[in-house]
Structures are given as structure tokens and as C-alpha cells.
Amino acid sequence: MEELKKYFQQILGVQLEIKELKKEQLNKLPFVFKSNFKFYSTTFRTHQLILLELNKEDTFNANQLRKQVVEIQKKLEKRIIIVTDTITAINRKRLIENRINFIIPGKQMFMSELLIDLQDFEKDKAFQKSVLLLPSAQSILLYQILHKEDNLSQYTFKELAEKFQYTQMGITKAIENLKRLAIVKVEGTKEKNIIFEKDSEKLWKDSEGLCINPVMKTVYVDEKLEGLFKSNTTALEEYTDMNPSSIEYFAIEKKQFYELRKNNLLVNLNSENGNYALEVWKYNPELLTKGITKKNNVDPLSLYLSLKDGFIDERTDMALDQIIEKYIW
């Protein structure tokens, strides 16, 4: 880290104070991360950053590294920079392609995205919210891609509200969100319709980066609930070559979850462990999965979005690629 300090001073004229990350912060992370990186903290332009020193390059995988960086960033709620003493040209190229901020002391610093974000870090969450899909809008988008036989352009706003179980105001907000993000156009005066001008492949390609994780949070219970759709790694078994996970995951729409919790119908509800995992979803999984699953699973695209940015192993990563190959391309 001494070389890093010198490099920052030389390139940016900044003196960094670098410390090992505190144990209470490290304890928030899965153990596997601790074997892959050494963790440090520093402050740059009044903003706290986490430095991840790469332990070995021989197991380097840029796509996997990006997923790990995203997961660590979520857990620690701070910006991440990869630090490594040496790296091959191809791996350096992959880091840049995957927009992973990194520093090779004395050689190269790639922090363009980070530096831009740091100018206005406090507004970052508000900015992200303005350029992402609302849960209601996402459910409409995914339905259009998955259910090609039921083009949503044939429905009026009122009919869409009934179909997706939203209020008139709720469906209007969803469509405004889709329109602002150039996913749909609106036609008509008194009776309005949405128009998707792109085919499914183009629609997904242009919209994937706008999609949100449908999972709001994961909790655990000790008794199985009837009528829920399987999710997470439990659901991968139907859509990919992966075997189901040892613990069963189920998706539950947030309104249903809060109603059950209010009436004390969730046995030993907690946020750490239990016989079954419940993923609390931001939209109703049942609306998308009808006619898609034969094994009572959530729809494959929501499943993909729920897993793609988390910490996943190589087999799960390949399974997610299978979903896109099957349902998009």
C-alpha cells in the first residue's frame, strides 16, 4: 500500500491515509471474499473508499470479479477500487470493459466512473432511481418479452391496470416510466395504448441495464407456506442444467408478506436462518410466470435479474447464461 500512496501523490497530488478495514466491517462479508482479497479503507475527497488488494491473478475472471465487487459494495455501502501490483494486458482490458475501477501502482489508474460519481456522490441514489424501471414498469416489460403471444399493445390503459392488478394511477406511473426510458410509445387520445416498437431481443438488450433486482429482501421461516413460487437457486433447476439448492427459496409479493407478518402467520420469522428462505418481491411473481413454468417457479427473466449481480459461483453464472440463451436469443 506504500506504493499506492506514492502513486496517488504523484498522479493526483493527494496524500492518502490507508488503514486495514475494521473487523466489524469485514464481518459483514462472506468468508470467501476474505480469502480472495485484503481489505483496506481510505478517504478521497471526503468520501470513504474500500481498497481490495487482489491476492492472486491466476484465478482471475473479470465477469466474476465484477459480481463480487458489486456484492461487496452493497454490503459495505462504499465505493470499491481493485489494487494489484501486476496484471496481464488481457486482464487489464477485461477490467476496463467491465467498468471495474482499478489501480496498478506506478503503472495505471482506471477510475473514470468513480471520479465522476464522487463529484456528486450524495445524489447517486436519487440519480439511479430516476434512470431505472419501477417494479410495475418492469413487470410490464418482462411480460411483453416472455409472452410473445399476448402483445400488450392490444390493451388500453384501463385493461392493463386490471391485467397487472394496479390502480389507474399506478399503471399510469408505470407507463410514464416506460415512456421516459424510451421503451414504449403511447398512442391514442381517449383510449390509449402502449406500443413496443422493438422485438424481444432488442427490447431486452436495450433494457437490461435499466432493470432492478425484484427481490427487496430475504427472510427465513421454519414452516413452508403453500401457494408460493420457487425462486433463487431452487428455481434454476427447471430453466438450466443446475440441480436445486439444499435450502428451498420461495418468492412472496411484499403486500402478502406484510399481511402474513401482521397476522403472525410466519413461523420463527427472522433475517438470518431457517428451514425455508422467503424472498420478498417488489412485484407479484405470479403475473409473469403463468404459462412459463411447469414446476411452480418464478419466471426465468426475473430469476436472472435476482441473481446476476450477487455473489455467484461459476456454475450459477453459466446457468444464468443458459436462461438468456433460451428465453432471449
Description:
The protein has 16 helices and twelve strands. The chain has a six-stranded mixed β-sheet with strand order 1-2-3-4-5-6. Helix 8 runs antiparallel to helix 11. Helices cover 43% and strands 17% of the residues. The N and C termini lie far apart (45 Å). It has three domains: 2-122, Trna Endonuclease, Chain: A, domain 1, CATH 3.40.1350; 131-210, Orthogonal Bundle (Arc Repressor Mutant, subunit A), CATH 1.10.10.10; 215-327, no CATH class. It has helices at residues 2-12, 23-26, 31-36, 62-76, 89-97, 112-118, 124-130, 135-146, 157-164, 168-180, 200-207, 232-239, 254-262, 286-289, 300-307, 314-327, and strands spanning 19-20, 37-44, 47-54, 79-83, 102-104, 108-110, 185-187, 193-195, 215-221, 229-230, 248-253, 276-281. The chain has 329 residues and is α/β, with parallel strands linked by helices. The chain is globular and about 65 Å long.
